[in-house]
Design brief:
heterodimer, A: mainly alpha, two-stranded antiparallel ribbon, 4 helices, 2 strands, B: 270 residues, mainly alpha, 2 domains, 0% strand, membrane (chain A), transmembrane (chain A), Branched-chain amino acid transporter (chain A), Brnchd-chn_aa_trnsp_AzlD (chain A)
Chain lengths: 102, 270
């Protein structure tokens, strides 16, 4: 059963991944539709980032994580190097948790 | 000013997220073993499924004795990879074997890194660099977690959970200068967050695509009455175009042959 679950998940996930990549060539999309593809990807990533920043298994994730994300985003806004953004976000959340913030 | 064109810069950026991925991978390995999974199963899952959210979900549902739900919930979470593949397209390569192999390396982070680079060879290099390094980080982390168990500690204590959203948003920021992308992304983020308590995991994020969907419908309907190019001008905010000294960005549908370049929406990054 365990092997069946892993194989089913692996095959299904790969099918999603490869389907988009291969479909891109087969679909003869007009220019306006092609322009929307990166918009769609950016929207999905923004939705992922927002839910990952604010929620944990369906509910509010606590204050430390969104605060860390906010610090990271502000640094990115100020054009800080990407590595600094990531480390500052993690460091802020870690520090707040150390201080007892959930 | 960042210099995304140079490989060392990309390498450093990917390494930052890779470190966080290795930490979460280790916690996945440790958690899987703690939940009663054999170590090889955790390693196989990270190698073959290679999707963190779905893997954690599957472990939880399997240890709750619900393997069918584990598969369905995992696949629902991973459905977003299909639109990612459509957007990445050529960035993975032209040869079939590159596409077949590269598809497996597709993750949220690799997609964000890739689409943040200008289209062409630079973007292709970014995809493969991020794809390979992040795959190694995730699987190396998993193996470590399986071997040393919970010794590595809870990654939340290091704030790793804040690193991913911050990194994704940092990579998205340049593309948000485009008005349509900004509206779609912000609207989608709000929809996803508000529906997260109500819907099964994975669905809220897919629901965010209503924004781009509405854009598509609008462009389609504006297109039909009068197919002339200038018709779309006012619709997509052409008056504001002068304020943004960027060649790409929010240029409306059919604004010229230059816009026919696939996936060129993020080219304004300089």
């Amino acid at each position: 059963m365990l092997i069946a679950v892993i194989v089913a998940l692996a095959v299904g996930t790969y099918a999603f991944r490869v389907a988009g990549v291969l479909l891109r060539d087969r679909l003869d999309l007009p220019a306006w539709a092609r322009q929307l593809l990166p918009v769609g990807a950016a929207t999905l990533l923004a939705a992922l980032a927002a839910t990952a920043a604010l929620t944990e298994v369906g509910w509010f994730a606590g204050w430390a994580r969104p605060a860390g994300v906010l610090v990271g985003v502000l640094l990115a806004w100020r054009r800080a190097p990407f590595a600094i953004v990531v480390v500052a976000a993690a460091g802020t959340a870690a520090l707040l948790r150390l201080l007892g913030v959930p | 000013m960042r210099t995304p064109e140079r490989t060392p810069g990309v390498l450093r950026d990917v390494a930052a997220i890779g470190a966080a991925m290795a930490a979460v991978g280790a916690s996945f390995g440790a958690m899987a073993v703690a939940a009663g999974l054999p170590g090889w199963a955790a390693v196989a899952m990270s190698m073959l499924v290679y999707a963190g959210g779905a893997q954690f979900m599957a472990i939880g549902l399997m240890s709750a004795g619900n393997p069918v739900a584990a598969v369905l919930a995992g696949l629902l979470i991973n459905a977003r990879h299909l639109p990612f593949g459509l957007a990445l397209g050529d960035a993975i390569g032209h040869r079939l074997r590159h596409r077949l192999l590269g598809s497996h390396l597709m993750t949220d982070e690799a997609t964000a890194f890739t689409l943040a680079r200008p289209a062409g060879a630079v973007r292709r290099r970014a995809f493969w660099l991020a794809g390979v390094l992040l795959f190694l980080a995730w699987n190396g982390g998993t193996l470590l977690g399986v071997l040393v168990g919970g010794v590595a500690g809870d990654p939340a204590a290091f704030g790793v959970d804040a690193a991913f959203p911050a990194g994704l948003i940092a990579l998205l920021l340049p593309s948000l200068r485009d008005r349509d992308t900004r509206r779609a992304a912000l609207g989608g983020a709000v929809v996803a967050v508000l529906t997260t308590p109500l819907l099964p995991a994975g669905l809220p994020v897919l629901l965010a695509l209503v924004g781009p969907g509405l854009l598509a419908v609008r462009r389609l309907t504006r297109r039909h009455p009068a197919p002339a190019d200038d018709v779309d001008g006012p619709v997509a905010g052409a008056p504001a175009e002068g304020t943004r000294a960027v060649p790409a960005g929010a240029v409306p549908a059919g604004a010229g042959p230059g816009r026919a370049v696939p996936a060129g929406g993020e080219e304004e990054r300089c």
